[in-house]
Amino acid sequence: MTNWTKPKALELLSKGWLGERPEELQQAIIHHGHIVTVPAGAAVYRQGDLDHAGVYALLEGDLRAFYYFRDMEKMTLWTIGPGAWIGQAVLFDDGPRPMEFSALSECKLFLLPVSGYRRIVAREPRYMHDFALLLCYSIRSNFNATIARRLSARARAASAFVRLAHVHGRQDAEGLLLDIRLSQSDIASLVGVSRQYMNELLADWQREGLIENSNGGIRICDFAALKELADG
Length: 232
Hints:
Layout: H1 6-13, H2 23-32, E1 34-38, E2 43-45, E3 54-60, E4 63-68, E5 74-80, E6 85-86, E7 100-103, E8 107-113, H3 114-123, H4 128-148, H5 153-168, E9 169-172, E10 175-178, H6 184-191, H7 195-207, E11 211-214, E12 217-220, H8 223-231
Antiparallel strand pairs: 1-8, 2-7, 3-6, 3-8, 4-5, 4-7, 9-10, 10-12, 11-12
């Protein structure tokens, strides 16, 4: 684990939404926030929680979003990569958290408390627009995920691997290694298919040379072909 400090957090988070904000706002967010550690197996927050702690940004670790149905069936929604923000809605309403975010490994996050957000916008109301843009990013991401679920199962799976490659891909001499622990059940849940279907599809893709197993992980050998499947 990296020894995270506020300057290091700012360096990472400046590559996304935060880096597009005015310098004064960047410094205010870093000043009012702090770094938290979530141990492996613990939840950042759970579905239905009314904790209203604030908005989080992942700095390091394996963080995933889950949704529980009424019968408590658990669905994996997506994996979260470093630099991604979660929990934005809490800045604008007092409703319950709509999903769970849990750490599969120890995670380091930057937390901007609701109290810090309120101090920032009380001093400079114009910055409320910047925080609204952060919420819009989340809405667009959720919309894209919803549309992806209307694709064929094969295209959905390819789309899931393309997203995983963008978030967790690490280039090596033989392709893109997914630097994240994913079981076939995890992938099946992300795609919305049975584990048996996912097992058969992954076997097909290995024979076709699109992917391969590597030390218990998955390497994407032909990203362009997967991208074409996802787009088609």
